[in-house]
Design a protein that fits this description.
The protein is built from eight helices and 15 strands. The protein is an alpha+beta fold and about 475 residues long. The strands form four sheets. Strands 4-3-8-7-6-5 form a six-stranded antiparallel sheet. The chain has a five-stranded mixed sheet with strand order 10-12-13-15-14, with helices on one face. It starts with a helix and ends with a strand.
């Protein structure tokens, strides 16, 4: 699915709507039951205080239990259906009841309790009162004067229920209104927040290979890091395009000369009959030029593969460095014998590292072949490898013609060939391939040289 600023905005809005709705509804429900609990707890405390007051007025008289009505008959308990009731039962018989009940047979013993304290044998119920109003009832069973007494104290909660209902209706209106306001605000904030993204996206669409040098403005502080990374990517892409253009241009130039030589040789041969020696000489020239073209094409393919990211650390395996060096020396031996040049090796205990064995061998071979090609007759090439903590340093030195100081800076550039190397066979890509392979392994290549005395290449790899 293609993500656009509009689809992102829609998704953000939906998630914001869902999250806000759940948060407000959950908060409203929690708040409602919290308030309800506080109100009912306050009523329960009042009932408990009144129950203790009534229980304290009980006394024994003439072998029975009586309540000093004269002390509590006045006030809220004296008004019929006032919403304040009490009743005391002993052995199934009512021994006292508030005048406000106006009917001593009214039952204050409903079903299952909402609260029960087993330690003090106290229960709390919610039921319907004598005036059809909701009431809160506290039932306390006590042992006094050698008898078991059931004390009931009830309080009307009509006003409290009305207040809770009003609060609930208020929440029912407030929560949707809050959700609506929050979502409208969230929609506006989302729109404003994504406006720079929309502008950023529109600007990106205008980027082509023709205007990679243009930089993208962030438009918002939040996008500055993204814009910076994108501009760095554009710079890398521009560099890659420039390198590709230069590579194509240089390759065309390098291939044009051998193709022209082959064509010229063929034209000369076809002009008239030639001797066998002339045909042989022309064919040998064509063969030599063709071999050089083959090396050039091979090196170009190697560079193309390296540029495409064929060497990734996740694909590396454990390889023997000594094995890579021995393979490279074995491949270079025929060339060294032909020169002639003596290759000497000084290898320490085998070193294992993560890498690509074939590519590392190729990099070492390129340097060793250069050391042989640009060496003096009966010269030496010395190869050593030493380990230093977590790094291994491979040194390849020769007794050859050396490199001019002005050529040192461009030594690893593609198709660059120093003046001293013009008369030697090569493509000018070998050291570029070396640099790409070693850097892909997280290492580096350094060179030291003195004109007329030789050169030393040092490869550093990390174990």
């Amino acid at each position: 699915m293609k993500l656009t600023p509009s689809s992102i905005k829609g998704r953000l809005f939906i998630w914001f709507f869902v999250f806000t709705s759940i948060l407000l509804i959950t908060g409203g429900i929690f708040l409602y039951f919290e308030v309800k609990g506080i109100i009912l707890n306050s009523i329960d405390k009042t009932l408990h205080s009144k129950e203790q007051l009534i229980t304290g007025l009980l006394h024994e008289e003439h072998g029975g239990v009586e309540l000093e009505l004269s002390e509590i008959i006045l006030g809220e308990y004296s008004i019929p259906r006032s919403g304040h009731y009490y009743k005391i039962i002993m052995n199934g018989n009512v021994i006292a009841a508030s005048p406000s009940l106006a009917d001593e047979d009214f039952n204050l013993t409903p079903g299952a309790p909402e609260y029960y304290d087993k330690n003090i044998n106290e229960k709390i119920y919610t039921a319907t009162g004598p005036d059809k109003e909701p009431i809160r009832i506290l039932h306390h069973r006590i042992e006094a004067f050698g008898k078991s007494l059931d004390v009931f104290v009830a309080e009307s909660i009509r006003e409290s229920i009305g207040m809770m209902n009003t609060f609930r209706y208020f929440l029912i209106i407030l929560i949707p209104a809050s959700i609506l306001i929050a979502c409208l605000g969230g929609l506006w904030i989302t729109k404003q927040s994504l406006e720079p993204v929309k502008t950023f996206s529109s600007t990106i669409k205008t980027i082509t290979h023709k205007n990679l040098s243009e930089k993208i403005e962030a438009g918002a502080e939040e996008l500055s890091a993204l814009a910076g990374s994108f501009n760095e990517m554009l710079s890398r892409l521009q560099g890659a395009f420039e390198a590709e253009k230069n590579l194509i241009s240089d390759a065309s130039h390098e291939l044009k000369t051998p193709v022209s030589v082959i064509k010229a040789q063929c034209d000369v041969l076809l002009q008239k009959e030639r001797s066998a020696a002339e045909y042989k000489e022309a064919v040998e020239t064509i063969r030599s030029v063709s071999e050089n073209m083959g090396r050039l094409i091979k090196d170009l393919l190697s560079l193309a593969r390296l540029d495409s990211g064929i060497l990734l650390p996740v694909m590396f395996k454990e390889v023997s460095l000594n094995e890579c060096i021995l393979k490279a020396v074995g491949l270079a031996e025929p060339l060294a014998k032909k020169k002639p040049v003596v290759i000497k090796m000084s290898l320490a205990k085998d070193i294992l590292l993560h890498g690509d064995e074939d590519r590392l061998t190729e990099a070492l071979l390129n340097i060793i072949e250069n050391a042989v090609n640009y060496n003096k007759a009966n010269g030496n090439v010395e190869i050593s490898a030493v380990r230093d903590n977590n790094a291994v340093h491979i040194s390849i030195s020769d007794t050859g013609i050396g490199i001019k100081k002005e050529d040192m800076g461009r030594l690893f550039e593609r198709f660059h060939r120093a003046d001293t190397a013009r008369n030697t066979e090569g493509t000018g890509l070998g050291l570029s391939i070396v640099k790409s392979i070693i850097e892909a392994h997280g290492g580096e290549v350094k060179v030291e040289s003195e004109l007329g005395k030789g050169s030393r290449f040092t490869i550093s790899l990390y174990c």
